[in-house]
Design a protein that fits this description.
It is a single chain. The longest helix is centred in the middle third of the chain and has 25 residues, at about 160-185. The chain has about 270 residues and is α/β, with parallel strands linked by helices. The chain folds into 2 domains: about 10-190, Helix Hairpins, CATH 1.10.287; about 205-270, Chitinase A, domain 3, CATH 3.10.50. It has helices at about 10-20, 25-40, 50-60, 70-85, 115, 125-135, 140-150, 160-185, 240-245; strands at about 120, 185-190, 205-210, 215-220, 230-235, 250-255, 260-270. Strands 5-4-3-7-6 form a 5-stranded mixed sheet. Helix 1 (about 10-20) runs antiparallel to helix 2 (about 25-40), helix 2 (about 25-40) packs across helix 4 (about 70-85) and helix 6 (about 125-135) packs antiparallel against helix 8 (about 160-185). The relative contact order is 0.11.
Amino acid sequence: MESNPSVSLMEAVGVYVASLRSKDSQSKAQQHLMKFVQWCGAERQIVEIRPSEIGEYGEKSVGSTGGAQAVERLQGVRKFLSFAKKKGLIEHNLAQHLRIRKGKSRSLKGSGTAEANIVELTIEGHKQLVDELEGLKSQRVPIATEIRRAAADKDVRENVPLEAAREQLGLVESRIRQIESTLKNAVVVQPSGEKAKTVRVGTKVYLKDLGSGRETRYTVVSASEARPLEGKISDVSPVGKALMKRSAGQEIRVDTPRGHLKYRIVKLTS
């Protein structure tokens, strides 16, 4: 089969993923290939990718930290490139230019980096993210199938279904990476059911507006869980920031577009 200059990298990935038999294999292939697609450019024609780019991608992916995950991801890219050559999507076997070596891992001990990336989640918030992640991952195969089906139309210039499927896959993968990053650094805060001493994620805070006298109850949560209309405020919101590590009886001042507001912390529960 001759190489097809009209096939984009994303289209080629869609064809490859759809060719895999099990859903587990398809899911892993998607995970391994998305960074490679972002690196090269999803819209680029696959025949335009140069061997030097493949080598550079391999070096930067492993870098000085290496690790089993990076090596496994590169193995996935090699399998895809071999498939592309076999199917005539590319003229040369680019897989041979992807040299895989294990790098040396650098310890983060004492750097404070790991601690800085910690995300505190409530039990409910953690479950919501896990459920959302599973739902998004289940969309990968159907979208890849749709890309393959739409790519079968040789006239890709006005192929609206193809563009829509590509865009949807990009949004899904972006959200998956975001959730996986959050869960990787997540610490689930367990409620004690006792009176809290200071405000932290998961604390229920009873506030009194010192201007109007109105009392309000908020639950302080992470940014990913924030639902202001439901009384769940983020720990990085103006009110949330002012509340963190404060105790009952203390007063806080919050700068808002309406001006300065003052509150008294009436009670805390966890």
